[in-house]
Structures are given as C-alpha cells and as structure tokens.
Amino acid sequence: MAAGITLYQGETKLIIVETNEDLSSAVEIEFRVDTNPQIIKTLTGSGIANVTTTQFEVTIEPEDTESVPAGPYKYQMRSTDNSGNITNGKFSPNKMQIKPSIFVTQGQGNDYN
After folding, report:
1. How many domains does the chain fold into?
2. Is residue 110 part of a domain?
3. Does 21 fall in a domain?
4. Which pLDDT value is given to residue 60?
5. In this structure, are residues 29 and 56 in contact, taking their beta carbons and an 8 Å threshold?
6. Mean pLDDT value across the chain
7. Span 74-108, pLDDT tens digits
8. Following DSSP, what letter does each residue of 35-86 receive, concatenated?
9. Which of 71-81 are b and which e, b meaning 16 or more Cβ less than 10 Å from the residue's Cβ?
10. Is the pLDDT of residue 112 over 60?
C-alpha cells in the first residue's frame, strides 16, 4: 500500500503500489519520486517487479536516497500497454516522506563514545 510511505535516507525499502489501473497488459511501468535528482524505477529497467492486475512492487535502493534532501515528496506512476497506450496512475495521497539518515558515519559529529 503506497499511501503514506516513509523511509530514511540510505535505506532499502520495498513498496507495494496499488492502483485502480488495469496493469494486465502493461509492457512498461514507470514509478517516479519527485526528488532532485528524481528517483525513477521501471519494469524494463530495474526496481519494479511482481506485477499483478492492480499492483506492483518497487524497490528503493540506498543509493536512490543517499543524496536526496530529507523532506516530503510526491510520487507518480504511468504504464504503457502492448498497444502503446499510456495511462497515468492515480493515488490519494501520493506522498512520500524521506527522513534524515539515522546512521552516523565516522567523522560526523561527536556521537562516538
């Protein structure tokens, strides 16, 4: 269930995205998070798997969010069927919260006792 997604910078996160769109004839699915740089996952590229008629899984990898500023973002998806028709998925809400990393790397601050 993609609504209300929360993750930390540098975290691996599996997201189950449910949509009202029929994905049974989808040959491509694109999932985007409006970060800078954008996080883009595709069915034919990488990051999207286990597609059913109305849902799919997206894997956000650590490198996708390590350099993204913490904050609220919107996400979106679109699918292309085998005839070339493009459908934009609709979500409500379509919000993702990326929180600051809780992992302290060596040399950052005085958190080592």
Report:
1. 1
2. no
3. yes
4. 97
5. yes
6. 88
7. 999 999 999 999 999 877 678 999 999 977 666 55
8. -SSPEEEESSSSBEE---SSEEEEEE-HHHHTTSPSEEEEEEEEEEETTS-E
9. eebebebebbb
10. no
In a domain, 109, yes or no: no
Among 87, 100, 102, 23, residue whose Cα is nearest residue 58: 23
| 78 assigned to some structural domain | yes
Question: What's the DSSP call for residue 99?
Answer: E
pTM value is: 0.84
> Which token pair is 34?
């409006």
Residue 1 has pLDDT above 50, yes or no: no
Give residue 79's domain range.
Answer: 5-99
CATH number at residue 49: 2.60.40
Distance CA 80, CA 28 (A): 5
